[in-house]
Specification:
By secondary structure, this protein is of the alpha+beta class. The protein is built from twelve helices and 39 strands. Strand 22 and strand 23 form a beta hairpin. The structure holds zinc ion. Zinc ion (ZN) binds next to helix 6.
Amino acid sequence: MKKTNCFQVKTYSLSFISFFVFLIITKYAQSQEQMSSDKYFQEIVQAERKANGYKINPAPLNAILDYDITYHRCEWQVDPALKYIVGKITTYFKPLVANFDSIKFNLSDSLIVDSIKYHNSLLLSNHSGDIIIAFLSSVIPINTIDSVSVYYKGVPPSTGFGSFNQSKHNGSPVIWTLSEPFGASNWWPCKNSLTDKADSIDVIVTTPSPNKVASNGVLVSVTPSGMNTVFHWKHRYPIATYLICFATTNYVEYNHYVPFGASNVLVQNYVYPEDSASASSQTTDIIPVMQLYDTLFGVYPFVNEKYGHAQFGWGGGMEHQTITFVRGFGHELIAHELAHHWFGDKVTCASWEDIWLNEGFATYLEGLTEEHMFGGVGWLPFKTRCINSVTSQPDGSVWCSDTTDVYRIFDSRLSYNKGAMILHQLRWIIGDSAFFAALNNYLNDPALAYGFAHTSDLKTHLETSSKQNLSWYFNDWFTGEGFPSYEIIWNQTGSTVNLTVNQTQSHPSVSFFKLPLQIEFKDQTHDTIIRLNNTFSGQTFSVALPFTVDRVNFDPGFWLISANNMVFSENEAGQQVSIFPNPAKDKLQIIFPKRFEGTNLKLMDIEGRILKEVPASGIKKLTIDISGYEKGAYLIQFNSGSNTVSKKIIIQ
Ligand SMILES: [Zn+2]
């Protein structure tokens, strides 16, 4: 799932805005304008979130554990002009417990259950608390496949990102569904959890002609029926409940084919007629993206069926299995949603706590397309954008600490950007070959493929592949919060460059971020990049270099999540003390290198008499009160070993 296209949103009502959570900078957008728009929008979202935070209690959704779904036959009748659904869901299931004499489904109380049938006989049932309980006429033995059919109808409620949406595009009515994360039971009776995938489904939708229906899998028949048309989609891969979908409107359909071995993968596109010209010029971009993912992560996981796009009205995209719903067709969005078919659909997060296994990966794969496509020009901007997002606040973990809060689950800074960058850091730590091997092993692990995974499953594959214990990394970067800031002090004696590496942390949950550092040394004609294994703050390193260094760059490859880094040579140390404002009236703010921590800052008059001493321990920034001093020139002085820095200031 990915949110985008937020420019025009500020003209909508606040309640509508509350859906627009996830922001991206689109590839060709004017970044300045968009940055301010994004910032403006984030502020609204934050304000909305505080005011109305969308919370739900997911406990009942996870309550159904006593049977395993094997199959759903979903029969729906809709008219895109009406927000209304009539449905019959036939579920095949296997009891996982003895004495299985009733079956539960999650279904909103807003919908009306007409009847529940078992072997053509009506069952007694109860529907309250958004749960249906149907009382079976006999006990079904454990592990025996059986089935029931639920007949229902009504107006689905609007929650989450809409779940079941009826709207218009260019005057034409449209219905689309978007169940992630908890919305499926708002419009169909299901087992609304992340613990069970149906092995296969059929989706049969009746809609007024000449509308078309897009859904999961293969379109096996299109049958006229009076004023209506019946579209039958068949999907024979395991599928999570939230990925089952349909959309119907007056779509224009066109296809692409992605070469695969001796055959092709079909890409079906269902687009609004008014957008078909622009869409068809953009959707061809999916061909090289799918080929890239095939190369990096193995063949498209649903290769026997199809991939597709269906246009909808929500401002972003949703990775419904084999049929991504999108509003627009920009590169990042379609690359992100296709990426989910490996990370999210084939291997699905086993808990919303682990949502980054979907969203961090899909975001990182967007980045990989920038690394490998378009001459790589978008790769550095992608990484800096992610790092800037993550470090815009001092706290927050990739681990989703509140799975009742939809906004927290889909937090673009943490689940998306930090998730992507902790993958990138891991790639730097364990190397490309171990990193990509681990990801392929994860995707192909029989216990995970076409099923669910926890973060610990990914960790196990990374540890096996790299032959390293990575608990420290997941402690610091998955559950830990914040990021490091580095101060690199260097000097050169002959052919030896000496470096001291200091680190501070933005959040107390991590006492030190143990990371290898990439350092670049340059002069007019030389450029040497080395890797330092930094294991504690204050660590010193000596590097032999055959030239006189005039510049040292920290992390030139943008491998690390870090910010506010400072690099300076020993003899420039004094220049790194900044004082402002100067001249000043009441207060002075002073930023100084870490090396001066633990010393006292002295305010002196021009004759050198000490007027005030301020301890500078443990901080890099001081604000001192200068009110009450006479106007004139004064000195600010630091002492550190043999190094004294004095700066003249003017008090007005
Ligand atoms: Zn996504």
